[in-house]
Structures are given as structure tokens and as C-alpha cells.
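Encode chain A's predicted structure.
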Amino acid sequence: MFDEDELENIREQHEQWEEDTLQGYLNTYGERKGRFATVSNKEVDRIYTPEDVSDLDYTEDIGVPGEPPYTRGVYPTMHRGRTWTMRQFAGFGTAEETNDRFHYLIENGQTGLSTAFDMPTLMGIDSDNPMSKGEVGKEGVAVDTLRDMEILFDEIDIGEVSTSFTINPSAPVIYAMYIALADKQGVPREEIRGTLQNDMFKEFIAQKEWAVPPEPSLEIVTDTIEFAVDETPRFHPVSISGYHIREAGSTAIQEAAFTLADGFGYVEDCLNRGLDVDEFAPLLSFFFNSHNSIFEEIAKFRAARRIYARVMEDWYDAEEPESKRLKFHTQTAGQSLTAQQPLNNIVRVTVQALAAVMGGTQSLHTNSFDEALALPSEKAVRVALRTQQIIAEETGAADIVDPMGGSFAIEKLTNEMESEIMEYITEIKEMGDGSIRDGILRGIENGYFQREIQDSAYEYQQRVESDEEIVVGVNKYTIEEDTDPDILKVDEEVRDRQLERLSNVKEARDNEAVSESLQALEKAIRNDENIMPYVIDAVKCYATMGEIMDVLKDQHGTYQGQVAMT
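Encoded structure for chain A:
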């Protein structure tokens, strides 16, 4: 973007400034630290100049929003056209209680729903299973049958609202319940909107929730993608999630690299099944973390968009613009929240949300200030939502597309991010002998991802404990404070109410129809058919989550995991 004569003048000016101005100032005053680095421990320079981006091609590398490589954003007007979807995560207790919270959020201006499930539901077991004792409704809503889903969305028109479901090994069952609910409400399947997390690669890499081994899990994910292409073209059947990778302790570069690699792994599996990339790729969505180092996060989002556009075209022959647009949801960093001085978390969340907005997110969840202590209270949820609304309405951050674009620092960081992310992706591809899909599966089995993440997590914790990394209120600026604040507590009678409803459903349903539907599902798995039509039939008969998942486990086997920690 600059000719050689201009760059030479800039170099000379910079050297003169260092000699005449900077060095004397440093000799007198110094700097507050010997080294400046991001949360990911990526060192940053004192100042960036045109020389740092001298090899940048404006048209090819930056471009304009809404056109490849989408560095500046996937749509021409971005948040000037419409603000991001404000999607607060909600779910606790029974379906009735979560339905009340959904209505509360909608009344306070939320523009999309996001559902949190309790651990039994996440793991695909019923509330009356002995393994569920003590967990029913505790960290999310309990959903055992279609009856729970009907109550969960009572007086909510699912043809009008976009809903996200954060669930993975049992995701096909929840997806089937939502489709069955749409059928009951008279909403055409092609009109329902939302997102299913359903990212099993990420589970084996970081979050550790699974029901069947990696390869059958991948087959099931591809079943949902294939079904969505034909039946629910406005519903995203998978949200490829870096969030949990980052929460497990990865760096920003590892988060983006492993997430993009997971996405490309799903693309390859769909192509292996014979699906058309330009039919399924527009339905893929992504989910990233936004942490405290604001410039690193903005650069990460920009680099990820650029990589995705180029790889989808160059490696997988995507032609349609929608197939090359990296569309993503962002959540602020739960790992950064502190139990100490919890009101400080409002500031952390605001900075993280601002990075997501300036980085071009499509939807956003802002964590509540009390989430390090418990499920969020209504007051904390309202503050979290108002944080997004203030950013949208009062700051001007949403008024300029890619407002940091053109900054020498941001463009340099974006380039560095792109290079280092691609190094990881290339390494994973080589592990799979040219297949990213196979590289991921091998990396899961040999502990590659776990080792990379644990090393980064350990290094970060060392920096915190040595006070190299300051966490306000934890290792600096501490105070004496109340260690037992008021928090949201789930009623201990939740389990009794949930078990009563489950018992009533089992008593009222047609058990012969349930048995026939489960047998049909078994046969479909043995015949390598897409399971989704059969799961929908089963949930419509009020088969339980656990009954359906038991069929999958019986047919595919269970998985103990392979984690190499050395």
C-alpha cells in the first residue's frame, strides 16, 4: 500500500524518533513493564507503522465488507443494517421456570433465545436415572420428553423467534423435539430458525461430553446436516465451537485454529457422503470466545473470516458467496469472570462485548456478573443484556463497519494471526495424510489437542500466580468482602416435579408405538440410514431422551476416551 520511497522515509523518521525522543524518555521514565503481551502471551510492539503492513494487498487481503475475503465483515452494512442478535443463554429448573425466564428476556428486548440444559439432558439420560440424582435442573433446564419442549416454548411462536440450543451428544434428540414442536404449532419446517451446537469434535477435544465414540458421533452430526439441508434450510444444524476450547485454556490462536479445522473436518465428511458444498456450507455456523485483550480478539475474528473464505474456495471448491462467509456467535469469556469483587465482571464483559461487536459478530451473549458464583440472577441478566443495548445504541461502535480496519496494529495482528492459525491447520492436515477430518480424529485419539491446550493453560496459570498476568481483585487490588452473597438457587423440589411429569408422560403414552419407533431407529442405524426421521417419529410418540440415546449407544458402543497428558 506504500511505495518503497515512502517506506524508506517512514523508516528514517521512526529511527530518528527512537534516537531523539524515545530513548531519552525511556532513560528518564522507563515503562511500567519490561514486556507487554496479550492474555494469550503474544507479545505486542510499542508502536506499529506502515512498514509492519508493507506486504499487505488492500484489495486481496482487506477488501470491502460483504465481499471475499470478508476480512471486514460478511455483509456490506454489517451492524448499520441491523444490530447483532442479542441472545442471552437461559435455562434452569423445570421447563416452566425457563419459559418464564424466556418471556422475561423477550420483554426486556432480547432478540433471540438461547437454551441451557441440565447435565442429565446434555448427557442424554433421563431425570429418573440414578445417575441424574442431584443434577436435575441445576445448571440448565431438564428436558426428558416432547412434553417438556411444549412447556418450554409455551406462548412463544417458534416461527417468529430464532432459538439456539447448547447441546451436543444428545443434540439430535433436541433437534427432533423442536421439529416436532414446529409440526404441532403448524409452523412449516422450512421457516424455523435457530442453531444447534452439535459440535462433537469440540467435545472430544475440550468439553468432554459424549455418548458414543468419535467416528459414529461424526456420522450423527453429518446426519443432522444432511437432514437440515432438505427439511430446515433456515436452521443451522451445527455451531462449530471454539468457545469451549478457549475456556479449557487455549490461546486465541489455538481457539481459532482448532475451531476452523473442526469446521473443515465436517465439510470433508459431508463431501465424503456426496453432499454439495454449496448446499450445506451456508448452514454451518461458528461460535467463538471473546476475551480481555481487545485488539487480539478483533484480529482473531478478522483473520478467521479471511482464512475460512480462502480455504472454502481453494480447498473445497465452494462457489456461492454464502458458502464462504464465516458467520459466528460470540460469548464473552466465562473463564475471565471472578468470584472476588463480582461487579468488576461487568467491566470485563463490556470490553469483551465491544471486541466482538467491532470484530463483526452476528450474535452475542454477554455473561452475567454473578456467573462465577451461580446461575445468573434476573438483576445480573438484565445488566448483561443492557450492556449489549448500550453498546448498540449509545457508543457508536455499531455505526462504522470494521472500525479498526486500516489500523497498522490491527492489520499486523490480523496477518500474524492468519499465519499462525494456518500453521496449526496445516499440521492437523498432515496428521491426517492430507485429510483434516482424519487429522482431527487421530489428534483426538493420541491426545494432541489436549496436550496443546493444557500447555497453554498451565503457562497462563503460572503467569497469574507469579503476578506477571494481573487479574484485578484476585492477585492485585484485593479487598475484604462478603463471601456468601445472594445468588440464584434452584429449588430442591425441582427434581420431584420433573419426575412426576416424566412418570405421567410414560403412563399416558402409547408404549407400543414407542417400542415400534425405537425398533425402527435401531434398524435405520444398522442400515446406515439417516437417523433424523426416525428420531422425530420417536419423540412424537413421547419416547424419552434416555430411551432414544440408549438405542444410539447400543448400536454404536460407548467411549471411555483417550487423553494423553505427557
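The first helix runs from residue 4 to 29.
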